[in-house]
Design goal:
The chain has 2 domains: about 15-290, Glycosidases (TIM Barrel, Alpha-Beta Barrel), CATH 3.20.20.80; about 295-464, Alpha-Beta Barrel (TIM Barrel). Strands 1-8-7-6-5-4-10-9 form an 8-stranded mixed beta barrel. It has a 4-stranded parallel sheet with strand order 11-12-13-16. Helix 1 links the parallel strand 4 and strand 5 (about 70-75). Helix 5 runs parallel beside helix 6 (about 190-205) and helix 8 runs parallel beside helix 9 (about 360-375). It has 13 helices and 16 strands. The protein is an alpha/beta fold. It is elongated, with a radius of gyration of 29 Å. Mean pLDDT is about 80; it is low at about 1-15, about 15-40 and about 270-290. The longest helix is centred in the N-terminal third of the chain and has 17 residues, at about 145-160. Belongs to the glycosyl hydrolase 17 family. GO terms for molecular function: glucan endo-1,3-beta-D-glucosidase activity.
Length: about 475
Amino acid sequence: MALSKKPVMAALLLLLLITSQGKSVPLDTYTFPSNKFIFVVQSIGVNYGTTADDLPPATEVIALFKTSGIGKMRIFDPNQATPQALKGSSISVIVGVVNNDLQGLATSPAAANDWVQTNISPYLPNVNISYIAAGNEIKPSDPLAQYVGPAMQNLYNAVTSSNFPTQIKVSTIIDMSSMGNTYPPSSGSFSDNASAYINAIASFLIGVDNLTIIVTETGWPSDGGVAATVDNVGTYYKNLISHVNNGTLKRPGPLETYLFAMFDEDQKAVQSIGVNYGTIADDLPLATELPDVNISYIAAGNEIKPNDPLAQYVGPAMQNLYNGVTSSNFPTQIKVSTVIDMSLMGNTYPPSSSSFSDNASAYINAIASFLVSTKAPLLANVYPYFAYLSDPTDIKLDYALLNSSGVVVQDGNLGYQNLFDAMMDSLYSALEKIGAGNLIVIVTETGWPSDGGVAATVDDAGTY
């Protein structure tokens, strides 16, 4: 989803751990996409909130965490979809307790036990739950403040009595409004108003002098307000990610830190900031917000057949998109093309004699002419499986699976050991015959089915 549209600054939050004997966490490789850097840092995580419209399903979000190398996640409430999707992953999770649940958990050990058995127990050991955060940013003057300590204690008792295979720590999250004096840092102290509240929390967490601190939220606004620009967001996150592994002057060493946030939560009463990760959701950032995304091609249509009523629009659409791109003066050249499939071929045997079908001739000639003039590649979906399926008697399975040990098709001085090469060279030969022999071809799809049908097995898919 898009970056926030309101210049509200997120607070720096601290998750105070149960013990000072916290174990170190394996290094996470975290790719920060809007700056094209890969940072190997300790304990970088991202907040994943769900108070928004049009979010992708949790399974896709977890996949995004994995592909981005994000090893840590914080969720704000114990919703079922997220831990279900996390099963089997190595992502460690902070599970939040909703503020409104604190009173019930504080006044009833049975309620705390039920909460743990409902929201934690079913997902162990398949989900790596590291912490339970009892409340979020409760202020000392908030009527709920009196319940934070008892809720932590009851949750802690419920966790320890459950004999889970891994130790799950219980804490709470404060914000920096609890601070009184902050300058210079060595003179920092909590405000008089917050003193009793923080002391009670710290007493529960034990070992105040060596208490480990986790930064559970930090970020920068991106659209509106003083210095709330996309460039500043990128600068802050890039520098922060490379910095947190060093810790601070007073506490050197890796500082576990969670960026805010995976998505711009438009249903929250107070709009927050985003990390610009939501590009798999419907609400994509504007082009001006994505100066460093490496967009290489625009594919105008996918597998449009010559007899499809839409075929007449492919060429004009490519031309208009090309004009739109070139007039925009982008810093990099984005090519415009279209995606064809192999059904446009007529003769394909041997590869050197291949040509496009008579039905496809005018259609592909117009496409090729445009691509040659704009120096853009042809995009093609190539599936040897379908060629094999059409003639399993003459086309051997090993040949289709790129698994043949010798030449299967001899075409002049070229000996083909696999069907994929033969299909590609058939396409090259057909392009030569229409004067487009120098066109680059990009295979935009290829694969092998795995669940049912002739030779559609997992083993065959793996071999292919």
